[in-house]
Automatic annotation (TrEMBL):
Single Gene Ontology MF annotation: lyase activity
Signal sequence annotation: none
Biological or metabolic pathway of the protein: Carbohydrate acid metabolism
Keyword Lyase: yes
Matches recorded under PANTHER family: 2-DEHYDRO-3-DEOXY-6-PHOSPHOGALACTONATE ALDOLASE-RELATED, 2-KETO-3-DEOXY-6-PHOSPHOGLUCONATE ALDOLASE
Protein name as it appears in the record: 2-dehydro-3-deoxyphosphogalactonate aldolase
Membership in a protein family: Belongs to the KHG/KDPG aldolase family.
Matches recorded under InterPro entries: Aldlse_KDPG_KHG (IPR000887), Aldolase_TIM (IPR013785), KDPG/KHG_AS_2 (IPR031338)
Amino acid sequence: MFRQALAANGLIAILRGVRPDEVEAIGHALYDAGFRIIEVPLNSPQPLESIARLRKVLPRDCLIGAGTVLDATQVAEVWSAGGELIVMPHGDPQVIRAAKAAGLSVAPGVATPTEAFAALAEGADVLKLFPAEQLGPGVLKAWRAVLPAATALLPVGGITPESLAAYRRAGAAGFGLGSALYAPGMDADEVARRAQAFVQAATAPIPLP
């Protein structure tokens, strides 16, 4: 289901800092804009409640998950809340294994080819290229030459609508979107406006360099 949801436009909403009392309106705004993957980082206020609320109110074709998952215990908590995706800032093999054992999709964070190959060996569904603003499109392009052809690389960190084209040319399969899409205090209308800009950039023809 993860690859199907990612195929919609390649965009993953990262709602770091979102509160349960506002997450449903923001989730609806993102879904209406075309997003089909939404992540609530576990260092947000009451993240498991937000995950449960999103899973309850959004259609099943929208994948709901957790970010900043650091250990296997948290994987179990996310599963209990109805989460379907585990996103990590690192590539801890124990967390990857726990996610796969629970039947969840998993996107570990990697910053070197060694980490990338190790995460794939453990069963990672996609690789989170993090932090993308330090690594850049050139690194992604180089990795594409050596990683298995079917590997989905998702830059995360500092991504804006304006920066999507360079990463798409380099072979990005999608993007994790943080503060340029949502930051604490934003209302659903503002998130909708930003979401539409990202969807437009992600689905437009890739311009020549």
